[in-house]
Amino acid sequence: MSENIFRPNGSFKEAVCIDAMRIFDSCSAQDCLEDLTFVFSTEDQAIIDDAAYIKTQSIDVTDVNFGISPVAFNQGFYSVDVTYNFRAQIEVYNGDSTPPVVLYGTAPFTKKVILYGSDGGTQRFVSDSGLVTTQESPTTGCACCKSLCTLPTASVSLVEPMCLDTKLTAADPETGERTVLVTVGLFAIISLSRPVPLMVPVYDYCVPGKECTSSSGTPCEMFEQIDFPTNEFFPRGLETNGCMNSCNNVGEQRES
Asked: Which among 11, 18, 21, 26 is least buried, having the fewest CB atoms inside 10 angstroms?
């Protein structure tokens, strides 16, 4: 479906109804991941232990895993755990004129952000996949309001990671193994989106205007940032809009 929108100057732009993933919230992150510990296979670790010095040739992200969970007492907000899996190409030198040995090590890093993802209480089916992941939402005052809550979709866009520093530690007194520490610079945009039908014109690329807030504080500090749920301590009246009225409406429809 489309329509032509005429403007006073005679030009027009086509407006098209599309089924798109609307980004409800996003943030940009510029993280300096200092001294990430990279691990190697048993055979490669033996080569690392005998190395004179090492160099990091390149670093890339091989996989990203997401964990999404609703934030208590903040309807529509979600805690997003983004776990990056890095792979580093390491050149190992023995101190003589022989060519370096190329090894590959891996390291994970998890970043947590809180973003707004709106609410979704419908089940979505498409022809080329199954049911979208659903999660049962917590009760909101009465059992009849308990329903399935469709989680938003998390995504992350990355540029190529930067190697800022590489260290080779001394041998551990107990195991005799040496550790490879790499400092990585990472630029990313993390987003939460949902599929919606939209009538849209085309303007320009969208870039988030805020930075990601990292939850690096203690659990108690995070708890103190949550607003006190005053309304949860008082019974709702019949005239109060919300879950109780919705339940009453459902009951009236069933009786009719």
From this structure: 11
